[in-house]
Amino acid sequence: MKTDVIIIGSGAAGLMCAMQAGLRGRSVVLLDHSKKLAEKIRISGGGNCNFTNLDIKPDNYLSSNPHFCRSALARYTPQHFIALLYKHNIAFHEKTLGQLFCDEGSEAIITMLRDECTEVGVKRFMNCEPQVIKHNPESKTARFQVSTSRGDFESASLVIATGGLSIPKTGATPYGYHVAEQFGVPITKLKAGLVPLTCAPDDWKPYADLTGVSFDAIVTTGKQSFRENVLVTHRGFSGPAILQASSYWQPGETLHINLLPDLDMLAVLTEQRASKKLLSNFLVQWLPKNFTDVWCEQQVDNKPLNQYNDKQRAAIAAKLHDWQVVPSGTMGYTKAEVTCGGVDTHALSSKTMECNEVEGLFFIGEVLDVTGQLGGYNFQWAWASGFVAGMAA
Question: Are 24 and 66 in the same domain?
Answer without folding.
Answer: yes
